[in-house]
Each structure stands twice: as structure tokens, then as C-alpha cells.
Amino acid sequence: MTNQRIPKRAEATLETMRKVFTLPEGDGSTLARLEREISENLLGFLRNHFASGDIAPANLEVDFKTSTIPEDPVFVSEQVDYLLSKVVSQSVHTASPSFIGHMTSAMPYFMVPLAKIMIPLNQNVVKIETSKAFTPLERQVIGMLHRLIYGGSDAFYDQWTQSSQHSLGVFCSGGTIANITGLWVARNRLLGPRGDFPGVADEGLGPALRHYGYDGLAVLVSKRGHYSLSKAANLLGLGRKELIAVPLSSSHKIDTKALRRELDQLKKRRIAPIAIVGIAGTTETGNVNPLDELANIAQDYQTAFHVDAAWGGPTLFSERYKGLLKGIERADSVVIDAHKQLYVPIGAGMVLFKNVEALSAVEHHANYIIRPGSRDIGKHTLEGSRPGMAMLVHSALRIIGRRGYEILIDLGIGKAGQFAKMIKASPCFEVITEPELNLLTYRYVPESVKAALMTATPETQIAINDVLSALTESIQKTQRQRGKTFVSRTRLEAQAYASQTVSVFRVVLANPLTTRQILSDILEEQRQDGEKLYVEEGMKATIEEILKTAARK
Amino acid sequence: MTNQRIPKRAEATLETMRKVFTLPEGDGSTLARLEREISENLLGFLRNHFASGDIAPANLEVDFKTSTIPEDPVFVSEQVDYLLSKVVSQSVHTASPSFIGHMTSAMPYFMVPLAKIMIPLNQNVVKIETSKAFTPLERQVIGMLHRLIYGGSDAFYDQWTQSSQHSLGVFCSGGTIANITGLWVARNRLLGPRGDFPGVADEGLGPALRHYGYDGLAVLVSKRGHYSLSKAANLLGLGRKELIAVPLSSSHKIDTKALRRELDQLKKRRIAPIAIVGIAGTTETGNVNPLDELANIAQDYQTAFHVDAAWGGPTLFSERYKGLLKGIERADSVVIDAHKQLYVPIGAGMVLFKNVEALSAVEHHANYIIRPGSRDIGKHTLEGSRPGMAMLVHSALRIIGRRGYEILIDLGIGKAGQFAKMIKASPCFEVITEPELNLLTYRYVPESVKAALMTATPETQIAINDVLSALTESIQKTQRQRGKTFVSRTRLEAQAYASQTVSVFRVVLANPLTTRQILSDILEEQRQDGEKLYVEEGMKATIEEILKTAARK
């Protein structure tokens, strides 16, 4: 602290501030004890500190009502006790092998100490002046993922990976920003400078559409496209209605004939497609679009091809399954999330570009950093200040290695197949979407209803399915609130029922610690809840009524 | 791991994966040793592991050329050794009290162990199913900052802080996303649903402009606006040329008369302003716009008022200086960066909205999360998956407290004043912009040139200033490469020289550990470098030549 004169009453606070910035917590402190616990037994720490039992969200909120910042500093120990009892204990055990509902799963042990090194380094990768080695490190990681996807030559990567005026891709906080960046680049390249026209980046969308003679812009993707694409369409000024949701094929992929029809329609409306988006692992069902065919269509219609492989990208590590993504190497841009199947903590997404010049379409400069000619990565990113997450991705790629990821991918997909078999073997469940990668969806159908449903008229099926949807939702909520295990739920058009939209359980099997026994326990828990709720919530009576009415007709 | 059958040759890799996800590094490992070092002596760790001496960025890159992901897993210890020798040692000591060039500074000690708890919890705040208590916690932090800025009543915060259908603001990865979000909301509110027209979010910018009868959209900000605003203008489809850069007043703020003129001009061009942006702490000079006056103008012209207080927001903690930000409480939206003057690690920005309904203009939903009616915060954020940084901000706000932040703010501003005095007391420096908050800019001017510059004709001044700019740049680079101390540089229109653009040193005095002695040492280092480079790089000869020519005229 400087030796400025300060009022006497502030002296105590000043002393606290001095301590806070210079003195570590003592060895006997709660924080030190927690740190040791995490280092020695991460899984145990997570298990031990989660409160069991359910608190409804509304009741949880009671503890977080105060909106005043305390006038005087609170002791670190007091805050830590507060966090443990009110926050940590009431957080979600996302790493639990029984938590198979979302895309957050186990974390490799080494991540935690590495993050502990990364955090105090507090590098800001927007510019080399606050990141130095983290800048070429991030470029290297981008190069590694680019090579995984595009498989360029050694000479290509020698030339471009560290080229200060180019970027093979950019890091960002996650898949949403990555998708937006990909489409931003596509929009700006489609409506770029031409002749005297400086391009959409400078002139804006109105003048750019007029100059190019379009009435609007569109993005095409299957109905299973991630909601970030709709955000992108809104943000980039296309409008959400110009995110064209193409119907699915019978295999839950994209109906490519319908895609061509939509493209023809757009032409008639003088709407220019900025990109066709292929999905390599849909968020809801894990299906992979026929990327090679989409690349052909993009070529035929002279539009960009963007692939959202936020989830499925690491499938490329698997010799056995990488063929599913054939054609990805023809994409103009590809999104991949490191905090999903690269097993890095949340906050790390990437978008890679085939063309080394692509990102110049969104390049920007300032006077004090990212000056023209500088090596600063920030000139090509949508975000500004960014942390050194590349260090964690780099470590994961090396410590897990290609073969390690291959095993993790193969295990997950294998496990999804096993789980589908278990579901089919049970008399009271029904698979709604088969696993292609490591995701599948299913629902609970009381044994007594199954046969009736099969033979019912379409009209009766609709009525029964609506009740079953309510039942699935009820089971999912019950299970979530109990907090022992977790699956998520979504609503899908079920192909077995003339595309009626039904509610389903959705599972994601990426946690290597999830065993067959755990999967079996989850099903048993759902079966028991289902049996109970079906009667208790009056659904049994409703379905019997529906069947009776149907029989009378 | 499941008991699937796997090929024999993969067994070793499988065993490695099992270890990686279940076994901590031993107590004697390098990682464990580093962790202890960080816990016991953070500042020492940072000092010890940075290599001194300069490596040119191009030479640094040599270590990061490989773009292949290793086939087999690398040992954790091998990766840690690699990181220490190649990455950590060559990163930037942003927390050093001698690093006064950018907005990254010291980190409170407690941040590191708290981050170590946050990382393995790996909550994803996009939805309550993966964040539970972190959702109301984040809402609480947003409420705290909202109260700091807008000072609403207790009843207001009781009603809205935890209201699941509203958001008083959103967290994001940093100020850039926060500014973009603020302007996205402003654009969508200006061109919102009206009668049969569903609004710009659905219909896109072209139809929205036609419906509302505008030829384009604009954002107005002083010439010192952050470059993220230009990114926003590009992204949102306005076009960078419609980010209207309003001239500065004599006090490096915004010329409000010129602002009104620009607004009148826009009207004539049928361009609708989506927002006037006020800056509370410009990135380059730390000046605060007259926010109250800007609020009046926004009211007069019926446009939104957005304040970029990414840097200066925490000035509100100071009884002595908060008056500088008077009028901020009238803004429709305010950006504040927690990773700047709230002393949180990089990756935490926020934007707060006065109107509790504002964020509905960018609301979005999906089938599997952020469903209508859910409590999921993700329905209002530009990003998707996000980490639980709110836990760190919450802890900082409580452990530092209002008075703690006040001291930090007062110390920084006081220190900037002292530094300005030191510069003025030196015969060979010149202050270019006086500190208003804790930033100032200055340059080196050889003593022998000072007097001549004062009395020179405007033409001669221009010639001399260009040489001095090259000298300042050269000194800054030399100092940066030496790596002992760091100031940044930028180019500004110097008001003392008829607004000629000159290069300047830029310092940010937010690190409480920066002492008067350090500041004096930095000046002395620059003086010595300046004296030397002035002669060695032939600038002395050039200036003598300029003066000789001038004398001849």
C-alpha cells in the first residue's frame, strides 16, 4: 500500500485490504482444509459436501434475497462457511456417474491443480502484452484441433499455426459464441467488400442487402439445430424466422431433399442463404447429419457450410466411429466445445476455419492493443478479454492423448448401445431415439398400456401419448428433486407415432465412471416412480377412460 | 469404467484413463508441490516462476509449433514440467505492482482457493438443472450490482432479484459481450413488435427498418468509445460507420453540443439512434462522460442511454468520487466488469438493466432447457453454458465490502494524482491527459526539446511530435521486452498540440501494491531508456535538423 494519508477510521479496512492482497489463509483455516480435501479426494469432497434431499427452487431462493453489499469486510472464514452451507451443499453434482442428463460430466483429476495454476497467472489472451506465451500456446491448440478436423499437411500447419496475421480459428467461452462467430464470418464474407462497396461490416445490413440485391438472409439447419443458431439469427439481423428448420429424415437426421426444396424456395424469395449448418451430434438426440451430402448441397448452391460439432467433434478421435463425421473436412467452419467431450471445465469453446483468411471478415483494431500488424489474437475474436483456458485444453489433449479420447468415445457409444438394450429388455420402457453417438431418448410406458397403445387408432394414440408425456415429466421432476440420480427431458416428434410430439427422458453417456449397475439403478428408480405416479396422479384412470371411450366407438 | 470388452492393446490406455479420472496426483508430485507453493506464497510463486530476460514473440513461437495431438497419453508430471518451463515462465506477471500498463492487476489471496472449489463443482449456470444454488446466487450478485448503480428500494429488490421470469441483468464472460448485450436489447426494443409486426428479433433488420420507416440504425459515443462498440455495430448489422464517434470536449470527455448535432444529422438521414453510449472511465484515459447531461439528451431525442462503466463502475463505492458518475442511475443499461476493479479473475462481466422487462427483448427458449416458465437464467443471456463465476464475485463483494472497495478506489485515484505530480516535476516528461480516475497518459520529451517545442511554429511542432511519438514507442517496447516493469501505449489526439495524434505511455493504477517508489523507478527506467534511444536511434539528429530548418525560415 502506498503511504498516502488516510482517515483514521478507514485504517482497519486498509489493514484488511493489505492482508487480503498479501497474506495467504493460514494452514489451519477452513479454506486450507478444503483445498487439501479437494487435492486428496476430489470425488469424496464432491460427495461429502452436497446436501441430499430436495429443496424446491423457490425455497432455495430464500437464502439469496439480500441485495446489499456489506458495508464492512466479512471474514474469509465466514464467507467460506456461508458458501459451504448455502451454495456448495446446494449445487449440482454434475460429475456424479449417476448424473447422466446433461453434457457436463466427470473431470480429470489433474484439471483442478492446473486450474489453480492458471487462475493466479490471470493472463488475458486478447493481447500478447498480457499473455505472452499463452498467445502461441492458444494458437497451437487451435492448430491441433484444426488438424484433427481438416487434416492439413505438415507444411500447412508450419506455415499458418503461428502466423500472426492469420487465425485458423478462435477460442471463446463456449459453443454459442462459437456458432455466432462462424455465422458472423459467413454473413460478412457473403456480403463483403465488392468494387466501391466497403462491405456489410462497415455499411450495415440494409445497404449490403441493397448492394447485393437480396431481400434478406437465411441459415438452414435441421429441426434439431441448437438454440444458439436462433440467437445468432436474431443477433446478426437475419431474424429468427429466417433460421429455416428443415424436416428430419427417418433416421432423425436432416431430410436433404427438403433442404434442397427450401434452398429453391429461398431463391424465389430473393433470400440469400449465408450458410447450411450440419450438426455432428444434435444436443437432444446425438444424431449426426450426413455431412458429405450437406457439403455437396452447399457446393451446388454456392453457400457456406458450417458444422456444429460442439458435442460430437471428438468422435474424430475414434477409429471406429470417425466415419460418422465424414465430410466435416469440407466445412468452411466447425464448432467444437472443449468443455464437453474434451473434459475441460466450463468456459472453453472453439470455432475452426478451413480458409486461413476467413477471420479477416470480422477483423478489428484499436489504438492501445490489437493494432494492425500485432500478434494479438484479440483482433479476430468476438469476445475481448479472455482467460488462459487454452492451457487446460492443451493439457487435456496431451495427458489424455488421441488414444485416451478414443477409449472415452468408444466407451460412451458402447454404453449407450447397452443402455438401449436394457431399456428394450424392460417391459415398461420404450426407446424413442436410438443412440448413434452416446445419447439416447426413451420414456416410461406402463406395461399394461404398451400393448393397447400399439393397436390403438391414431386418435387414441395421441390421447394416450399426451398422458404419457405428463407422466414422463412427472417422473423426471421427481427424480431430479430426489437428487440421487439425474436424467434430463425434452420434447421430440416421435417417428413411431406419426411425428406426434412427446416428452422423453434424455441421457448423455459421457462420464467414464457411469457403470452398467448405475444405469440399471436409474431405470429401476424410474420404474418405481412411474408405477407410483401413474396411479397417484390419476393418469391410470385417465388412460383407462381413453381406452374405454375408444372401445365404445 | 464399465466392463465392456476392449482390445488388449488399449488396456494400458484404459488404465491411464481410469487413473486420470479417479486418482489424485501423489503428495510428492510436482503438481502437489506447486499447489502448496501457491497456497503458501502466491506472490513468491509468481515471482519465482517467471523467467526474466526478453524473448521476442517470434522466438517464443518456436516452442509451440507442433500441431499434432500425441497418440499416447503423456504423463501428468511431464506436462507440468513442460508448462512450467515453456508457458508459466514465459507468461506475463500481470499481478506485479510494476505492471501498470493494463487493466489486469493484483488478485486477492482468497480468490485462488475459492476458484479451486469452483472449478471441480463445474456448475453450468445456463440452467438450474446444472447449477441449482448457483442460479439464485448469480441473481443475488446481479441484484447487488443493480442496487449499487440504480439504488432501488428494498421493496423493488425483494420483488425482482429472484423473480424467475425477469432478470435485472446478466453475467457474461466480459465487457465486450456485456456491451453487445446492452445494444442488442436496445436494438430489439427500438424495433420491437408493433401491431401485426412481430419485431426485429423474428423478422430481421431489413423488414424491421421498412416497417418502422428508417434507413438505418446508429449508436453514438465519444471518440474514446471502447472497440467492442464497433464490434457490436458490425455484429448487430448497423455497420461500423454508423457507430458515430462524437468529438471530445476540452476535458477529454464528449462534446455534448456535437452530440446533439450528430443526432440532428441522423434524423435528416432517417437513421434511428438505438442508443447513446456514455463512458464511465474510458479505456485509454479513464475519463468519465457527463452522464447526467447525456441522460437529458437521450431523453430529448427519445433514445436509449447505455453506460459503459466496465472500468469505472466501482467508483460508485467511493463516497469521495462517486459524484463523477452522477446520472448513471438514469441509464437504461450499464456494463460493469468484475474482472477489472472488482478484482475477480478474468472471465466475469455484467450488464444491468433499469427496466425489469428489458431482457425479454432477447428472450429465447429450447425444448430441453430454458423452457418458458423455467427459472433458467440462460433464457436471457447471449452466451449458453457459463461457469459459476458469480461465486467469486459474491465472495469479493463480501470479503472486500463496500468500505474495502472504497479504499482501493481512493488509493488508486490518489496515486494517479501523485504520479501526475511526479511526471510534472521531472524535466523530461509531459502529461498528455490528466487523471480523472486512476488512469493517465504521458510521454518522454528530452529536456533540450521541451523549450523548443513550446515556442515552435505549429508546423515544426508537428514534425517534432512525430519524432517524439517514435521515441515513446521505442521506449515502451524496450521496457516491455526487458520485462521488469510495464506500461502500455496508445495514440491520442493531444489537446495541447492542436489535436495532433501522438503516441503516449498509458498507465492504470489499480494495483494496491504499487508504491510511490515503484512509480519513481518506472519513470527513472524510462528516462534512462529515453536518453539512450534518443541518441542511438538518430532521433536527436532528426530533431536538430528540424529545428535548424525552422530557424532558417
Automatic annotation (TrEMBL), chains A, B:
Single Gene Ontology MF annotation: carboxy-lyase activity
One Pfam family in the UniProt entry: Pyridoxal_deC
GO cellular component, as recorded: cytoplasm
InterPro entries: Asp_decarboxylase_pyridox (IPR022517), PyrdxlP-dep_de-COase (IPR002129), PyrdxlP-dep_Trfase (IPR015424), PyrdxlP-dep_Trfase_major (IPR015421), PyrdxlP-dep_Trfase_small (IPR015422)
GO process annotations (BP): carboxylic acid metabolic process
N6-(pyridoxal phosphate)lysine found at: 340
Cofactor: pyridoxal 5'-phosphate
Keyword Lyase: yes
Keywords of the record: Decarboxylase, Lyase, Pyridoxal phosphate
PANTHER family: CYSTEINE SULFINIC ACID DECARBOXYLASE (PTHR45677:SF8), GLUTAMATE DECARBOXYLASE-RELATED (PTHR45677)
Protein family per UniProt: Belongs to the group II decarboxylase family.
Protein's name according to its UniProt entry: Glutamate decarboxylase
Organism per entry: Planctomyces bekefii
